[in-house]
Specification:
With 172 residues, the protein is an alpha+beta fold. It has 8 helices and 7 strands, in the order ααββββαααββααβα. It has one domain. The strands form 3 sheets. A 3-stranded antiparallel sheet has the order 1-2-3. One of its GO terms (molecular function) is metal ion binding.
Length: 172
């Protein structure tokens, strides 16, 4: 038993020395372009933008709202996790955009150590599906330390392009 605990502690210590993934840095998540209020990083991946005055972009604010509407029940407030589901603010440090979208849309089942974790598919739930980018940018901001816990105090206005995309998705 003591040997197993020592080996487990060693594995955890080695894992903590793993190089930081590109997703895990504020620099990689930095917004370099803006299309109708939606921000993108250098690789064209949706990202968050928070002004020096603390004004959060609309999509990050929307992601905060959607997360706390549909995801926090399992994944805990502000993406910090729970005894039921993992901390998404941690998961996104190592998860790319495509993987995130795929898991949210299709779900996932993990079985191991006598425990089964199931993430249901949300690809048919328009209250989630239509806002997957919003959820991603919110959790990305939380993952890289760009946004503290809690409701953002200030936000950009919703653009007409965002409103039209929402209408189109919800009606489609």
């Amino acid at each position: 038993m003591a040997v197993r605990l020592a080996v487990s502690a060693f594995i955890i210590a080695i894992a903590s020395l793993t190089p930081v993934n590109a997703q895990d840095s504020k620099e990689a998540a930095k917004a370099v372009s803006n299309e109708d209020g939606k921000y993108f990083d250098a690789d064209g991946v949706p990202t968050y933008n928070i002004s020096p005055e603390g004004v959060v972009d609309w999509f990050t604010f929307s992601g905060y709202r959607r997360y706390h509407s549909d995801c926090h029940v399992c994944h805990g407030p502000d993406g910090v996790g729970s005894s039921y589901a993992p901390a998404l603010a941690e998961s996104l440090k190592k998860m790319d955009y495509g993987t995130f979208i795929s898991i949210v849309a299709e779900g996932r089942k993990n079985v191991g150590g006598g425990k089964e974790n199931v993430m249901p598919a949300f690809g048919d739930n328009k209250n989630v599906y239509c806002y997957m980018d919003d959820l991603y940018v919110y959790l990305r901001a939380r993952a890289v330390g760009g946004m503290p816990r809690g409701r953002p105090p200030k936000r950009e206005d919703k653009t007409e392009a965002a409103a039209e995309a929402e209408r189109s998705c919800m009606e489609g």
